[in-house]
Amino acid sequence: MAAVVVVVAAAASCWSLTAFVLLSSLLLFSSKPTFAESDSHALLMLKESFDDDDASALVSWNPGSDPCNEEGKWEGLLCSNGNLEGLRLEGMGLSGKIDVDALILLKDLRYFSVMNNSFDGNIPEINRLGALRALYLSKNKFSGEIPPDYFTGMRSLKKVWLSDNEFSGKIPSSLSDVSRLVDLHLENNEFTGKIPDFHQRNLRSVNFSKNKLQGEIPSSLLRFKGDVFAENPGLCGAQIKVDCNETDKPSDVNGGGGDKNDHRKIIAATVTLGVMLIALIVFLVITWRKKKRKKASNGGGNATENGNSIANIEAQVSLPATVGEVHVVRRTGNLNRTVRASYGES
Residue 25: pLDDT above 60? Predict the structure, then answer.
């Protein structure tokens, strides 16, 4: 009888423990936000940060629905096994602000692209997403300088596309510290200064063309062809067949090379102007002396005239049958005189 009681008591204890575990699990899962309650909220926050007139492409983003539901997945989402891993909001005519706080709530976000839209202003603080692997901001209207340490801490980053914007200033030096970097596209911006060294072993695609970069192309990038450095008038290197001798090196934007060149130009212009001025003075002196000599020569000739010096006397005498006439023509300078004499018959 005692054994039966022990068995019954043990069974009751086991059942109580099982019930407790089931109840605890039920309470745990009911208190944890579902996917739709967490990620959908963050996505709707992001949508609200865009300009209302431009968010028509996101009409599928509706509250109360599962963003990664295969039957009605929200536009622009990259999902894997029901988890949101990326946003590909490309070519949707979006503008306004990118709410980074909303992106941070997407814990599994690894891929972010807003290529070919109309976002402008400074680069958003997407560097707060330390686990991001791919960042695509190309073909927008972003502008201004990117802080040198912007990419510090983004150790998982593999792909960076910032091309076809209006970024200026120097290329962020922190990019050279992103150890896993594979793709780097910065073309068609207004970056200045020198290209940093990139020693990443896996770096396979770069493009620095159509900027305002200066100086020698780093030796760490010798394996890339010249077209990825094209249309940077200040660059030099073997890839683009521009010699980097000291006398021909482009000056740094903030350096003193440009001032030295300007100083040389000013000196050359001053010397040239001085030579021209001296030549003009010599010409005027010679011309004045020639005129003075000519004037003196003409004055001597007039004095001879005033002294009644007679030259070039031309006489004509004709003797008619009855009357002899003598015509004498005297020329003195510009004065012509004719003397006529009549003679009787001889």
Answer: no
